[in-house]
Write a structure and sequence with these properties.
Elements: E1 23-28, E2 38-44, E3 49-53, H1 61-74, E4 82-87, E5 90-97, H2 101-112, H3 125-140, E6 150-155, E7 158-163, H4 185-197, H5 201-213, H6 216-225, H7 233-244, H8 247-261
Length: about 260
């Protein structure tokens, strides 16, 4: 069963929950995996392995990752724990990773194999999960959802699927009503998941309702906990205004309509 992460000593304590002291990167993997926006992959002084990202020109990658990872976790989309990482004098966004062959295979099966209940009959829970995830990605303007930015984490006998990589989301930079995703990776991945697992419109609309219920104080708390160099004050204020002035509700209403009539 999918559920939000609760720190149990296996994950590091997450920056999502409270302001944390930065973790120092003490050992870098010399040939890290290829990935958009990755600056470094290595071990922190807390003993955990992190994928680390920096900003890309005008794109506030660190703030985008932190804000929307925290928001996803808040609306019950399980995510990897995050940290502020210090490396070579830089302050980086760090996402906890726990790679293994076993867990990579778990993600492949989760994506490609239909779910069944205890009696072997069809189950809709994977369709519900991907329907919620697509609604969330549509809201934050994430154009790069694909099978490579889901990871697995073994928690005893259970495997948790975690959504990672919100760096391509556009909502922080351009808060407004434009919800067009066109033929992006997100749309293509969602189309594939619908073919395999089915569509759960109720689950997607439930996500819209959850996002509508997120208070401004939560967004303020996430932004306040970020290092001040991660986000321009003007961009932060524009996003807070989007959250408070009714624009967020209008965007969510547009997404809800698109989910109902199939135009999204």
């Amino acid at each position: 069963m999918l559920r939000p992460h609760v720190s149990d000593g296996k994950f590091p304590a997450s920056f999502q929950g409270a302001a944390m002291l930065p973790v120092r990167l003490t050992g870098q993997i010399p040939t890290p995996p290829v990935g958009a926006d990755l600056t470094a992959v290595g071990h922190g002084d807390d003993g955990h392995l992190y994928y680390c990202k920096d900003d890309d020109g005008h794109r506030p990658v660190r703030a985008t990752e932190q804000l929307f990872t925290a928001l996803a976790d808040h609306v019950n989309i399980p995510t990897a724990a995050t940290q502020v990482i210090e490396f070579n004098g830089q302050s980086l966004f760090g996402s906890f990773c726990h790679p293994s062959t076993d867990e990579t295979e778990a993600v492949r099966k989760f994506i490609s194999e239909k779910a069944h209940d205890e009696l072997g009959g069809p189950s809709r829970w994977k369709g519900s999960y991907f329907s919620r995830l697509f609604a969330f990605d549509a809201f934050v303007g994430n154009i790069d959802r694909n099978g490579n930015n889901l990871v697995a984490y073994r928690d005893g006998a259970a495997i948790r699927i975690l959504a990672i990589d919100f760096a391509a989301s556009t909502l922080l930079m351009r808060p407004g009503l434009d919800t067009a995703l066109d033929e992006t990776s997100t749309v293509k991945f969602n189309r594939l998941m619908r073919r395999i697992h089915g569509l759960d419109e109720d689950a997607s609309l439930e996500m819209v309702a959850r996002l509508e219920s997120v208070p401004l104080s939560f967004i303020e708390s996430v932004l306040d906990r970020m290092p001040p160099t991660w986000l321009d004050a003007g961009m932060a204020q524009r996003f807070l205004e989007f959250w408070r002035d009714g624009s967020r509700s209008k965007r969510l209403a547009k997404i809800g309509a698109g989910l109902k009539d199939g135009t999204l």
